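Ops channel
N.P.: pipeline sanity check, posting one input/output pair.
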């Protein structure tokens, strides 16, 4: 039977446990609570009893075991104090590292700007019986951490039927799962179904939409072989959907059927036309520009659209040569030399947040500017000195010819402003249209270039010009039946059988 002396000898173990539990619980909770204080007091009393009792026995401090135990106690207490301080600092000064590919757990620069520009409180209402989506909760908490004007609340529809009826009126009698409130304005956030998570892209776009007092109207010129807006080869459906999610009204426009540009047009976009415009169409665009309108021109090489009367007033000179990249940087993306990768951007609101990130422009042309009265031109997309504009793509061996070709660096895209009779008009010209087509739009910064250009040209109040949030990439591995059976056979049959055979051989040799 264990005697009193033996019990006293090991009494320091529960004392350390009690002290550790009290200190850690206090640091984690961040406040002094009766449980943590009680554990610390009990641990101190136990430790004091152990020290006094051991002093009662003669020669206690001279023993080797006592010295070893004291060293262990000091080391243990040091570790506890260090861990406690680390937990305390992390709670008071949280620091997060997001290692996911598309920074799924971090807010994009665009979202942070939107939150910084909030003039009124924003609140998200989630109608569900229990919030069991950790990714959605993480997104909302990130917004809340970045702005004191942002909050959210989870509502159980069964417990607050009055609130349910109030929000049903907003969505024509149907209760959506998520609503957004900005000041006194409320609107539903449209999700595909009740199971879809509220992503950063949808939430940020909804905040930008509800903030605007007026819906901006963007017209896409059609009738000259431009990229189709919905479906078809070379369509720009992704670009159109992104504009609509940001609160823009997108409308096709055929100027051959109309005498003038509609008066509600905030922006005219010409994207990838393949046939020359009629003179009256060019005249309508020129008049619209002179009256303070904004235009975005996405012009592919080796095509004459008859836009010289408009471009001359802005000091724009188009070059029919095709940009080639001799640096080989496109090899990492399996792209050829006719697809330049741009990493240099001008000092302009459209590109100011891009740093040295990549945007891609397959089969593009240079854009040159000449100094023109009352026009201010700023470079947007700048090629490097390894690129040149090639004049002869039919040659058997393509190389830079200083007598015919244009050496880099030069501009692939420019942004211009002009003041005429107190009317400020804007123009963005990019020597490529493929970068906004489906598939290319989501590559690197391509979509950001287009959307930021539209934001800047449409004259929105406090436009958010930055890098958008990215959707998670689908990294699922689709195995054929043969590959699936092969993996199953190797992992379940072959490897275990091989291990068993090796074990038998080893046993037999030792025997």
């Amino acid at each position: 039977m264990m005697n009193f002396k033996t019990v006293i000898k090991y009494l320091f173990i529960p004392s350390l446990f009690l002290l550790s539990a009290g200190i850690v619980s206090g640091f984690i909770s961040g406040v002094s609570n009766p449980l943590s204080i009680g554990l610390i007091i009990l641990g101190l009393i136990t430790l004091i009893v152990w020290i006094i009792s051991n002093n009662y026995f003669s020669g206690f401090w001279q023993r080797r075991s006592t010295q070893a135990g004291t060293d262990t106690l000091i080391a243990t207490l040091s570790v506890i104090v260090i861990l406690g301080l680390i937990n305390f600092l992390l709670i008071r000064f949280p620091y997060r590292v997001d290692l996911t590919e598309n920074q799924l757990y971090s807010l994009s620069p665009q979202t942070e700007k939107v939150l910084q520009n909030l003039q009124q409180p924003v609140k998200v209402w989630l109608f569900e019986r229990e919030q069991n989506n950790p990714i959605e909760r993480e997104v909302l908490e990130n917004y809340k951490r970045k702005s004191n004007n942002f909050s959210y609340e989870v509502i159980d529809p069964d417990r607050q039927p009055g609130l349910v009826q109030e929000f049903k009126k907003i969505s024509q009698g149907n209760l959506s799962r998520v609503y957004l409130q900005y000041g006194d304005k409320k609107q539903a956030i449209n999700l595909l179904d009740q199971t879809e998570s509220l992503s950063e892209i949808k939430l940020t776009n909804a905040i930008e939409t509800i903030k605007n007092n007026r819906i901006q109207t963007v017209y896409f010129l059609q009738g000259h072989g431009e990229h189709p807006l919905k479906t078809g080869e070379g369509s720009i459906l992704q670009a159109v959907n992104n504009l609509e999610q940001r609160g823009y009204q997108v409308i096709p426009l055929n100027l051959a059927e109309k005498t003038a540009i509609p008066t509600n047009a905030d922006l005219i976009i010409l994207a990838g036309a393949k046939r020359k415009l009629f003179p009256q169409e060019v005249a309508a665009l020129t008049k619209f520009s002179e009256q303070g309108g904004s235009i975005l021109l996405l012009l592919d090489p080796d095509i004459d659209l008859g836009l010289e009367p408009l471009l001359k007033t802005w000091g724009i000179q188009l070059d029919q040569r095709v940009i080639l990249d001799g640096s080989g940087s496109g090899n990492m993306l399996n792209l050829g030399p006719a697809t330049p990768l741009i990493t240099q951007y001008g000092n302009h609101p459209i590109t100011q947040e891009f740093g040295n990130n990549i945007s891609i422009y397959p089969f593009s042309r240079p854009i040159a500017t000449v100094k023109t009265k009352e026009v201010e031109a700023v470079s947007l997309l700048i090629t490097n000195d390894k690129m040149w504009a090639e004049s002869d793509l039919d040659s058997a061996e393509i190389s830079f010819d200083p007598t015919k070709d244009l050496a880099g660096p030069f501009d692939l895209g420019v942004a211009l402003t002009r003041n005429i009779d107190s009317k400020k008009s804007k123009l963005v010209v990019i020597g490529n249209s493929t970068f906004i087509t489906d598939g290319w739009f989501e590559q690197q910064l391509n979509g950001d270039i287009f959307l930021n250009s539209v934001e800047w040209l449409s004259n929105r109040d406090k436009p958010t010009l930055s890098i958008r949030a990215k959707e998670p990439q689908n990294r699922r591995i689709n195995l054929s039946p043969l590959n699936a059976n092969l993996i199953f056979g190797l992992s379940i049959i072959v490897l275990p059988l091989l291990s068993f055979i090796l074990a038998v051989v080893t046993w037999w040799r030792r025997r």
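N.P.: looks fine end to end. The chain has a mean pLDDT of 82.
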